[in-house]
Amino acid sequence: xxxxxxxxxxxxxxxxxxxxxxxxxxxxxxxxxxxxxxxxxxxxxxxxxxxxxxxxxxxxxxxxxxxxxxxxxxxxxxxxxxxxxxxxxxxxxxxxxxxxxxxxxxxxxxxxxxxxxxxxxxxxxxxxxxxxxxxxxxxxxxxxxxxxxxxxxxxxxxxxxxxxxxxxxxxxxxxxxxxxxxxxxxxxxxxxxxxxxxxxxxxxxxxxxxxxxxxxxxxxxxxxxxxxxxxxxxxxxxxxxxxxxxxxxxxxxxxxxxxxxxxxxxxxxxxxxxxxxxxxxxxxxxxxxxxxxxxxxxxxxxxxxxxxxxxxxxxxxxxxxxxxxxxxxxxxxxxxxxxxxxxxxxxxxxxxxxxxxxxxxxxxxxxxxxxxxxxxxxxxxxxxxxxxxx
Length: 390
Prior knowledge:
Number of helices: 7
Protein name: tRNA-specific 2-thiouridylase MnmA
CATH superfamily of the largest domain: HUPs
Number of domains: 3
Strand order of the largest sheet: 12-15-14-13-16-17
EC number: 2.8.1.13
Main location: cytoplasm
Structural class: alpha/beta
Distance between the termini: 67 Å
CATH architecture of the largest domain: 3-Layer(aba) Sandwich
Shape: globular
Largest sheet: 6 strands, antiparallel, barrel
Strand content: 25-35%
CATH topology of the largest domain: Rossmann fold
Subcellular location: Cytoplasm
Enzyme class: transferase
């Protein structure tokens, strides 16, 4: 496998910092770059200490993963540093994550981590170390654009595509970021790890949110915000009072399980009204959405976002990491917000999730994205069952 990071001069003249999580992907990146002759420096971020997470397989950035990253660096004979970013991670990722859930949203902490700790703080550290680039094991691609600058693209292996989580990378950051695995299938990455003699070749991939080692995010939120799980009413979209719940932080839009309702029809969470702690439920068709508003928009497309006319720009949008992108139309609203019209409609779009945008023609180039806002609705008013609209 030949690596070309599109940097001036021979590899030996370029220092590259590799963000090493202790997993197979970033370890292979470090190994390939070292083998290609780059001046490689490995950096691992200590982001949290959750006790149980230290010994849990599949949880990244914990004690075992730091140990694995150190062993890989020793195997490759490259310098390796562990940076204590716990305070930064808590302030930039964990606390906003908890606040977002309590506001009735379903946040994506990997997006905020990439936008803050990894590609702001760590990039600054790479610059301080005199690096020409920061390389990671993400499955995306960064390529030079015909008009100058670099663009972000989906990887060759669609099953490993992580572009949804990286839409927030800025144009300036793309100038320094490199993603060497963008054109490499995962099975080949594991083969390369064996070829390089790395002990993490068969290490399982991380699955959970890294700071929620047991998969129960509500427990983490309650620990951060004692008393946050306050009960409230469950109300049908037609106004019927159906029961109570034990905390909005335990639910997300589109959820069916865990409602504990016996009303003779399948019901789903349609929206969460956090101010009144109300869970609004309804039939599946009530989840259909055609227009959403996104905030904190990061634009990577050609020209400026504000230059898009009132007719909008036709592109593709992805409103959940597990869903494919679909035809959409983007209209800027100003103040870092935009409207996304989902031309085919979507079901169960959850506020707080990311909306990643892609070019219309190929669906491969990432044009940016933003955070999905809660719909502007009048709060539901609960009525007794006897007053229900028949």
